[in-house]
Amino acid sequence: MVLPSEETLTTAINDILRSNDLERITLRMVMSMLSEKLSLPLSQLQRQKPLVRRKIDDFLAAFQGEGADHSTDQPSTAAGSKRKSSVSEPKPVKSVKLTGLERAVVLSEPLAEFIGETVISRSHIPKHISAYAKKHDLQDPTDRRRIICDDALKAALSVDHFTFFSLAKTVSGLVRKPEECDEHLQELAKKCEEKIIQEKLERKQREALNPPPPRPTKRPKQDKSNPDRPRRPSAFSKPMQLSDALTAVCGESQLSRTDVVKKIWEYIRENQLKDPDDGKKILCDEKLMAIFKGSKTVSNMGIAKFLSAHMTKIP
DNA sequence: ATTCGTAACGCCTAACCTGA
DNA sequence: TCAGGTTAGGCGTTACGAAT
């Protein structure tokens, strides 16, 4: 296989980055576009992923150098360094997406009456309720996190008391997604979200000028030395639809990848197709040649490479 | 640290083979 | 134990807001 030269790769990456939104494009997207642009299978390009990542960083560095005078207008992309190492990356400020907690929700009738709005950002609900509790001195004096509801709060939340932690859960039962509601409410939600996006955008722009310190990652490492550690089900054990050529060798039309490899090796042994002079080499008969693109021999390492073309997802 | 929902993204895992 | 090759999908993290 012939991998593209660094120069070819650099030109292609720069073309892609120049013609796409730098705030939205990811490394995965660049890899996919490269695969298409260079007419190379993605799997082949994976080898050059570190180089691609480096070239993206180079591009961004050059790009930022050009626009260094515009501190609030710096470009950014998720395509460069990985999230955990992207400490020095500027944050996107030109566009924002709403998270689940920021999305607009439709309130139950009592809650809407209490807050005075039918559609509101989910995150604003505790804010309203907390402000009300403070104003009316509803905090439990022995535990200020606990709120003792007055009649208005009881009517809105259908509970006698709550803590700040349980409030979110209580609220969950009192709101609906806009898409579950009629067109009028959906329209209200749309306008509400536009407003939230605008506010978020302004906040992001302020943060871009004065970025907060990065948070440390909390992900624990897997204890690989422990053989009893919990294992996840493997994608390799999922049955796939086999091509006619592979079915002819395996004897079954649907098998998992691992089973296919097993069957092929069974077939090789049964038909004594290992090269007696070179244990790593397989001498292909007609059935195997149909799988291995007409090759008369294939190395034991090379078997897996050809399988993907003969295996498709079962719908 | 705790609650809620959700999207995006990256990490990691799995089986199989032989020979050095 | 590593080499080579395959990839779907589970899971963890992060982000967002609020108060204590």
Automatic annotation (TrEMBL):
- Extract the Gene3D superfamilies matched here: Homeodomain-like, SWIB/MDM2 domain
Q: Read off the Pfam families from this record.
A: DEK_C (PF08766), SWIB (PF02201)
PROSITE patterns xref list? DEK_C, SWIB_MDM2
Entries under SUPFAM superfamilies matching the protein? DEK C-terminal domain, SWIB/MDM2 domain
Q: Which domain of life is it from?
A: Eukaryota
Domain DM2 positions: 100-177, 235-313
Ranges where the DEK-C domain occurs: 3-61
Q: Where is the composition biased (Basic and acidic residues)?
A: 220-231
Q: Where is this region: Disordered?
A: 66-93, 201-238
CDD domains per the UniProt record, alphabetical: SWIB-MDM2_like
Name the PANTHER family on file: SWI/SNF-RELATED MATRIX-ASSOCIATED ACTIN-DEPENDENT REGULATOR OF CHROMATIN SUBFAMILY D
In Swiss-Prot or TrEMBL terms, this protein is called Upstream activation factor subunit spp27
